[in-house]
Write a structure and sequence with these properties.
This protein is α/β, with parallel strands linked by helices. It has one domain (2-127, 217-304): Rossmann fold. It is built from twelve helices and eight strands. It has an eight-stranded mixed β-sheet, sandwiched between helices. Helix 1 (41-44) links the parallel strand 3 (23-27) and strand 4 (49-53). Helix 2 packs across helix 3 (97-108), helix 4 (133-143) packs antiparallel against helix 5 and helix 5 runs antiparallel to helix 6.
Length: 305
C-alpha cells in the first residue's frame, strides 16, 4: 500500500494497493477518503490492480481552486481513470456519493468502465422511502446557501474533529464496536490531520453535499441516466442504512433487473468497513460469475504483456 499523488490540474491523492490484472478504482462517499477502503483494498489487490482515489476536497486532495461538486468530481474521476489506465476500461467501486459519481461516469464515459460495484449508492429516493428526520434535516441545511456553511462551521467548532469523526461513523453504523479493530482510530486520527492541515475541508463538504442533494432531486433525469449504464453491475445494500434507505436500492433493483442485487440484513452504510469478509466474498462471487466479463478485460491485457 503506497500513498501517491498525480497532477490533474492540481494534486490528486490516491492510495495504491498494488496488484495486477484488471484495474479497479475505489471511490469514497461524502466526508470519506481512501481510508474507507482500508479493510478491503489489499485483499481486492489479490485479483486486481487496486487504487482508492481521494476526490477533490476530501482525503489528501485539496480544493486548490477547484470545485468539489459531484459533477466536477466525476470529471476528475474520468481524468484519473485515463491517467492510471490509459488503454483499458476499469472496474469502478463506489460507496454512497462515490456510487452516484461512479454511475455518472459509467453513463457519460461508458468506454472507460468495464464493470460497476455500487455499495449503498446515493440515489433518488424511492416512493416508499423513509429517511430519519435528523438526517433529512441535516441535508436540508446543507442545501441552503449560507445556512449550510454556517451549520458545518458551528458544528466543527462545537464538537471538534474526534467527536465529528465518531459521529460520522455512527451514522454509517450505529454500533462503533461493529467496526474491526483500528478502523475507528484511523478515522479519528485522520480527522485531526484534516482539521489541522486542511482548512478547505468544510467548504468542500458543503459544496459536495449541496450538489449531491440537487442532483438526486432530479429523479427522472437520474433514473434515465442509470438506465443507460451498459457495464455489468453489482448493487450492494445494507438493510440498516440510515443514509441510503434500503427502499431506494430495492427500487433501483426493479428498474435494473439485469443488475445483480445483494441485500444484507443488519448491515449499515459502509459494509466494506463493517463486515469486510462478507463484502469481499460477495464481490469475489460476482467477479467469478455475472461480473466475469469486467474482470477478464484486465486479465487478458496482463497476459498479453
Amino acid at each position: 500500500m503506497v500513498s501517491r499523488t498525480l497532477d490533474l490540474g492540481g494534486p490528486v491523492h490516491y492510495m495504491d494497493f498494488g496488484g495486477s490484472g484488471p484495474t479497479m478504482v475505489l471511490v469514497h462517499g461524502l466526508g470519506g477518503s481512501h481510508l474507507n477502503w482500508m479493510m478491503v483494498g489489499e485483499r481486492l489487490a489479490r485479483r486486481a490492480r487496486v487504487m482508492a482515489v481521494d476526490l477533490v476536497g476530501f482525503g489528501r486532495t485539496p480544493l486548490a481552486g477547484r470545485s468539489a461538486s459531484v459533477s466536477a468530481n466525476q470529471a476528475l474521476l474520468d481524468r484519473f481513470i485515463q491517467a492510471v489506465s490509459p488503454s483499458e476500461p476499469v472496474i469502478l467501486m463506489g460507496n454512497s456519493m462515490g456510487g452516484a459519481i461512479s454511475v455518472m461516469q459509467a453513463a457519460r464515459q461508458p468506454q472507460r468502465v468495464s464493470g460497476l460495484v455500487l455499495v449503498n449508492p446515493a440515489q433518488p429516493r424511492a416512493d416508499d422511502s423513509r429517511l430519519e428526520r435528523a438526517v433529512l434535516t441535516q441535508f436540508a441545511l446543507y442545501a441552503m446557501p449560507g445556512v449550510g456553511e454556517y451549520f458545518v462551521k458551528r458544528r466543527t467548532a462545537r464538537f471538534g474533529p474526534e467527536k465529528l469523526a465518531r459521529g460520522m461513523l455512527q451514522l454509517c453504523c450505529r454500533d462503533l464496536a461493529r467496526f474491526p479493530d483500528g478502523v475507528v482510530q484511523a478515522h479519528v486520527d485522520f480527522a485531526r490531520e484534516r482539521h489541522e492541515r486542511m482548512p478547505w475541508g468544510n467548504e468542500a463538504f458543503v459544496q459536495a453535499a449541496r450538489s449531491l442533494v440537487f442532483q438526486l432531486m432530479r429523479k427522472k433525469q437520474f433514473r434515465a441516466m442509470e438506465k443507460t449504464v451498459r457495464a455489468p453491475t453489482l448493487l450492494l445494500q445494507g438493510s440498516e442504512d440510515r443514509l441510503v434507505p434500503v427502499a431506494n436500492s430495492r427500487e433501483l433493483a426493479r428498474v435494473r433487473p439485469d443488475w445483480t442485487y445483494v441485500e444484507w440484513a443488519g448491515v449499515g452504510h459502509t459494509p466494506m468497513m463493517e463486515c469486510p469478509d462478507l463484502f469481499l466474498d460477495t464481490v469475489d462471487r460476482w467477479l467469478e460469475g455475472a461480473g466475469r466479463a469486467a474482470a477478464e478485460v484486465g486479465t487478458k491485457v496482463a497476459r498479453a504483456s
